[in-house]
Amino acid sequence: MKRALVCGAGGFIGAHLVKKLKREGYWVRGVDIKPHEFAATQADEFLLRDLRDPENCRRALTLPGGIFDEVYQLAADMGGMGFISVAECEVLHNNALINIQMTHIAAELHVPRYFFSSSVCIYRDMQPDEPPVTEDDAIPANPDNEYGWEKLYAERVAMAYGRRYPMQVRIARFENCYGPEGTWTGGREKAPAALCRKVAEAENGGTIEVWGDGTAIRVFTYVDNLVDGIFALMHSDLGGPVNLGSDERVTVADLVRTVIEASDKPITVSYVPGPVGVHARNFSKARVASLGWKPTVSLREGIARTYQWVEAQVAAARASVRCA
Ligand code: NAD
Question: Which domains does the chain have, with CATH numbers?
Answer without folding.
Answer: 3-177+222-244 (3.40.50.720), 180-219+248-282+297-323 (3.90.25.10)
